[in-house]
TrEMBL record:
Originating species: Arthrobacter agilis
PANTHER family in alphabetical order: GDSL-LIKE LIPASE/ACYLHYDROLASE, PUTATIVE (AFU_ORTHOLOGUE AFUA_2G00820)-RELATED, GDSL-LIKE LIPASE_ACYLHYDROLASE, PUTATIVE (AFU_ORTHOLOGUE AFUA_2G00820)-RELATED
Name of the protein in its database record: SGNH hydrolase
One example GO MF annotation: hydrolase activity
Domain SGNH hydrolase-type esterase: 9-182
Hydrolase among keywords: yes
Keywords: Hydrolase
InterPro entries found in the cross-reference section: GDSL_Rv0518-like, SGNH_hydro, SGNH_hydro_sf
Record's keyword annotation contains Hydrolase: yes
Amino acid sequence: MNFSQRYVALGDSFTEGVGDWDPASPNGVRGWADRVAEQLVLADRSWGYANLAIRGKKMRQILDEQIDGALALEPTLVTLYAGANDILRPRVDIDRLMGHYDEGIGRLREAGAAVVLFTGFDASGSAVFGTTRGRTAVYNEWVREIADTRGATVVDYWRLREFQDWSYWDVDRMHMSTAGHTLMAARVLEAMEASHAIDLPELEARPVLRRVEQLKADAQWAREYLTPWVGRRLRGVSSGDDLAPKYPVPVHPHWASVPA
């Protein structure tokens, strides 16, 4: 299909949609970007949607593997979040990394695409990932400066305090849940000043665990999710190594197949 407007989503698991599990979608996930695309298509059928994001990718991989692919699609709109997997590494040169990021954003803007960027999440509520809070703050200042210089829109994830509620997170405590992806889709559209008809989820109250129960839950989480995650990084492998992009060319995905 030919589309006069094309939305291309780039990034890692955040943009691929991990945590918003859907067996009917490619790679078994839906996600906020799919939901943003749905609203764009429902409002205007001239929009097509491509998603090149793959879980586990670091920033240089995203820039090297996805920017050219996005430019080949002649995008009208690009969303890009990259760097979270770098920040979690033992060592990272954030200043150098963000220089490459700036170059990538510049290429997208010079091609005429509107660009939406994201600051990193404030993980202060996580005993494990909260240790990277300082790195994320530096990353965020770079994102805001690049957005100012390049004329990009910023979704300020750091300041979206709703996401401090664990009900917006999947059981792995690393990715947003379906509720989280739904809320993020609404916040992205609002940052773009685009109308939407997304019904925000009503969260179920989580039981308050006693200390012993919380310790048991934390230990189970470490065994089932944290240890395998650390192991993959030590082996230099990624959960996305054998995956292809969900939507490599612009389409109207199945959930946006509404009458014209």
